[in-house]
């Protein structure tokens, strides 16, 4: 990468990714870890036909800048807002909701909710061994380079302890180069770990002993070893589970879950208080392991859950909860039809980041009285909301700050006719 030029600039504002914008007419001219009003020194690099701008120093600091609390900040590509003061951080998150409503041309006041416990209960980290050097951590922002970490300040303390303990064990799995991913889940009854090795390999007695060393770490109840996505070794003390409204539901380290233990409870309370009337017929689309389906059913509503992941459906069926109808259905390939949706009073959606474009097109044809949309992506939510607004009114918008120190936010929107 060749140095093309260098210069000074003033940060004018932040975009929705919390990146500083200097000149709006210059594509790609943005910088992480800065604040409006700051004067910076930068370099312009060119590699082949790609231009890259690199922040070199901050010449004049904002009054809203604070020292980050994590030693890996700006190195690890996870967090992007630890340099924000508390008040400016909250203002930024609130403005994300306001800007979303402005784009939708809806004039209501959004509500921002900050969970008291912001420690994540699951993490996905990467590892590789190259020329006898072992790396375990997150990717540096915008690269495939792993930044070594011994802890993660946004994860639960026990996950940080596990990360530190895993490094010397994993590094000696093989003498040759290898790479993979770790999925660590802090479930209700202990730590469960999936070790995903990218290559095919034959399980040796040596690797079995290493797996037992991981299994014997404090709080570990399950560890699984995969070779090219094939499970080749498992040690289980007890199956991991999470509790949803007092119901134990089995989970796996790679299961989709809200990142914070409190998130599901907070969102469930919002959903419940925004459902008008008792004994409502509710379609829970993308229901997962019943984060909302279970509390809705326990509060007297008639809930039908739709989910494409067989493992999630089986976990619900094997739990003590048997009060709802469950359907294995891929809502992307085969969304509920207008006639099917007409059987429900309320449609609840909690899709992946890709949203539910085809499904919402059918929802606006139906007679359902209200729609509650839970989303982790403001971009796909905005796209889908514009369709829903053709028939429904957006009454309330909530933001849950469950992705602490990042520009992401969980959205809960309540629509009615």
Structural summary, described in words:
The chain is α/β, with parallel strands linked by helices and 417 residues long. The chain is 23% helix and 33% strand. Helix 8 runs parallel beside helix 9. It is globular and about 60 Å long.
Topology:
Layout lengths: L1 E9 L2 E2 L5 E2 L8 E2 L7 E9 L2 E11 L25 H19 L6 E3 L8 E9 L2 E7 L6 E3 L8 H14 L7 E10 L2 E8 L7 H11 L4 E8 L2 E7 L4 E4 L2 E4 L10 H13 L7 E5 L7 H6 L3 E6 L2 H9 L6 E4 L9 H4 L4 E4 L7 H7 L6 E6 L2 H11 L4 E8 L9 E7 L1
Helix pairs in contact: 2-3, 8-9
Q: Helix tally? A: 9
Strand order in space, largest sheet: 7-22-23-21-20-17-18-19
The amount of helix comes to 10-25%
Biggest sheet overview: 8 strands, mixed
Provide the low-confidence segments as ranges: none
Beta fraction: 25-35%
Number of strands: 23
Counting helices, strands and paired strands, the structural category is alpha/beta
The radius of gyration computed from the alpha-carbon positions, rounded to a whole number of angstroms, is 23 Å
Categorize the overall geometry: globular
The average pLDDT is 93
Terminal-residue CA separation: 56 Å
What's this entry about, in short?
Helices cover 23% and strands 33% of the residues. It is globular and about 60 Å long.
